[in-house]
Amino acid sequence: MKVIIPCHRRTSSDIFYLAKSLELFDPGLAAEYVFIFDRQEDIAANVSSLTSMSRTAAATILRLKDLPEEIAAADSAVFSHLVSLYDEFVLLWPENLIVGQDAWLRRIVEARNHGKQRLPVYALVTDGMWSRNGWYSGRTLRQWPLARHMAGRDGSALPFNEALAACFLAERRERDPAAVLPEAEAFEEILCAPPASRRQAVARHYQRHALLSGPALPFVRDAILREKAESAAPAVGRSLPLGRPASGRKSAGDALLGRNKAVPLADWQDAFTGRRCFLICNGPSLRRTNLAALRHEYTFGLNRIYLNYERMGFQPTFYACVNPNIARQFGYDLNQLRSVRFFEANFAPYIRNSWNAYFLQHNGAKEANFSRDLRPLSWHHGWTVTFCAMQAAYYLGFREVILVGCDHYFSVSGEANKTVVSGGADANHFHPDYFGRGVVWDHPDLENSERAYTLARDVYARDGRVILDATIDGHLTVFPKLKLAALRES
């Protein structure tokens, strides 16, 4: 079944959420997706993500610039072109729309086929016309005089669904001036508008309706997609222990780690005074680093470090993430982590507010500054999550912080801080799927990161603390170097 997704003149946010729902929910039928774009830059920004997210081996890109100008000029003309190309298709407009259940495509097709009416359009009727999202028979619609009804009285092109209604009613109103479009049988069970409450939207509509749309959708779509993602996500290191020292080497903070219930952030201040911890970054050098040796150390994990958990044999004691691309795309993974976690405040739509999660606001300063005290629930991003972890480690009281996997080198990069879509396996990190094909990520800002690192080094030094770098063949020169194998238990 052809599934048409008109991405032209649509917002990137709407495109993303529809595509994400297509990734998560199985259509129940073999599907071929046709993505329509009008600008080359939109294709570059979105098509890798869309094609990797869809559950199909076949995807077609239809570029409006390749069509005759009279077709590309209006949506009604584009629709007529689709009718000429495909015998039947389902149209999904990525405008405030997501898929809401498994077998959604099969349900649409079966509902249409089982109905008593044999109309060439199966869609919701609102305001005297069919809605745009639905099933269409191109084979039948080719016999309709659509072109006659595509222009309004002023000569401007009508929306295609309005033109369809006008065409359908023209002949019928010759016999019955009061004729109206017949209601689509049971389509209100196919497409539904969820309420603005996340909890109610999940309880009432998750896995119950093929399509979800409506004015409240932007407030609840994250919760619905997260519910599906978490139910389908493989376990992330659930059976692995939390990394921390053996009983004879524990500190006062271990009592807090053992509570497994909410702990005020203030209680963590200086809970590990005088101890050391390791910041496990995500560079390719991790593949050559014996991380199993850190099982009985205090450790910080960052971003998608959980892809390495099985090899490590433990979960880090602490965890930090401030990258919105990671939270938005992999929040269902982050919600499974058992570490004490530090997040950016605006991750609330993606991260459950559990006992081991703390949300801190970026303080907004244009220049890097170092937050010694996290009780105001703010810190500075410093253009890298590693800088955030350094602030958290300082607040927790660690005297010595040792970096591993901080390669500070990207073989694939570009303009600093530019958001792009990965086109293939990730060569910049320890795992090829870290920012693999179709994943949205930001180019690093190494220059500003170094400024932040320098500030962290100086803050630690002034207070009699130190940051060291045990990265294998790392390119960062801000911190004193040492070899991980040379470290002895403190």
Give a short summary of the structure.
The chain is α/β, with parallel strands linked by helices. It has helices spanning 12-24, 40-53, 69-72, 75-85, 104-114, 138-141, 160-175, 187-190, 198-205, 217-232, 253-257, 309-312, 324-334, 385-396, 446-462; strands at residues 2-6, 32-37, 59-63, 88-91, 97-99, 121-126, 129-137, 191-192, 211-213, 276-280, 298-302, 318-321, 340-344, 357-362, 378-379, 400-404, 419-421, 440-442, 466-469.
Task: List the SSEs and their pairings.
Blueprint: E1 2-6, H1 12-24, E2 32-37, H2 40-53, E3 59-63, H3 69-72, H4 75-85, E4 88-91, E5 97-99, H5 104-114, E6 121-126, E7 129-137, H6 138-141, H7 160-175, H8 187-190, E8 191-192, H9 198-205, E9 211-213, H10 217-232, H11 253-257, E10 276-280, E11 298-302, H12 309-312, E12 318-321, H13 324-334, E13 340-344, E14 357-362, E15 378-379, H14 385-396, E16 400-404, E17 419-421, E18 440-442, H15 446-462, E19 466-469
Parallel strand pairs: 1-2, 1-4, 2-3, 8-9, 10-11, 10-16, 11-12, 12-13, 13-14, 14-15, 16-19
Antiparallel strand pairs: 4-7, 5-9, 6-7, 17-18
Helix pairs in contact: 1-2, 1-10, 9-10, 10-13, 14-15
How would you portray this structure in words?
With 490 residues, the chain is α/β, with parallel strands linked by helices. The chain has 15 helices and 19 strands. It has helices at 12-24, 40-53, 69-72, 75-85, 104-114, 138-141, 160-175, 187-190, 198-205, 217-232, 253-257, 309-312, 324-334, 385-396, 446-462, and strands at 2-6, 32-37, 59-63, 88-91, 97-99, 121-126, 129-137, 191-192, 211-213, 276-280, 298-302, 318-321, 340-344, 357-362, 378-379, 400-404, 419-421, 440-442, 466-469. The strands form four sheets. An eight-stranded parallel β-sheet has the order 15-14-13-12-11-10-16-19. Strands 3-2-1-4-7-6 form a six-stranded mixed β-sheet. Helix 1 runs parallel beside helix 10 (217-232), helix 9 crosses helix 10 and helix 10 (217-232) packs across helix 13 (324-334). It is elongated, with a radius of gyration of 27 Å.
